Amino acid sequence: MSESADDRSATADRDDDPPDMGDLYDELEELADVVDDPAERERVAAAMRTAAAVEPVGVFGRVVSGFDRGDAAEALLGSALFGIPMLVEGGTSEVGGFLTTHPYSVAGTYAFTVAAVVGILYVSDIQDVRVTHRLLGIVPRRLAGVLGISLAFAVVSMTAWGRVDWGTPVVAVAAVSVAWVPMAIGAALGDILPGT
Predict the structure, then answer these.
(1) What share of the chain is helix, strand, coil (3-state, %, to 5)?
(2) Which of 119, 132, 142, 161 is deepest in the core (most CB within 10 A)?
(3) Distance (Å, rounded) from C-alpha 5 to C-alpha 42?
(4) Rounded distance between C-alpha atoms, residue 114 and residue 8, angstroms
(5) Which pLDDT band holds residue 31 (cuts at 50, 70, 90)?
(6) CA-CA distances (angstroms) from residue 103 to 52, 91, 117, 158?
(7) Are 152 and 122 in contact (CB under 8 A)?
(8) Mode of pairing for the β-strands spanning 139-140 and 134-135
């Protein structure tokens, strides 16, 4: 079967793009899969850590890995920037009240929030985000950090500003779920946009 002109053009366009750090990291990951010797595996792992630590010029195009205090602070700032309008908006409580009569909608809201954060961090290609550490061997630490920080900010800030009454926990949980959506999105963007 012969290649069409469009296929050849698309291949040529990809070949014309200069390689970036993500391409290097991908090649190192492929190399790590075929190396058998433990000493060589460690050398490839060291090269991957070095590639992830290289700081290219500009905000975008970096390989983002790990999750430290700086990332947590960026996630908190993003959560606050996107979330404070939800704290002062009366519609948050109204939507929360509606959700209390629709429990599947509460679950859907939480699921959407997690899916949106996963999409921003790992699917959207805003940055080349790599999973280097997992909690319990399953959940990426960056994902857990962004979701946890934004959820904690939603609970604490809505409680501190009197936006929820925990005497009626169903209403409070529903209202927090509404506020958490933009807070989690803001936390994810705040974390990866600076490119750290």
Answers:
(1) 70, 5, 25
(2) 142
(3) 43
(4) 39
(5) confident
(6) 43, 18, 22, 20
(7) no
(8) antiparallel
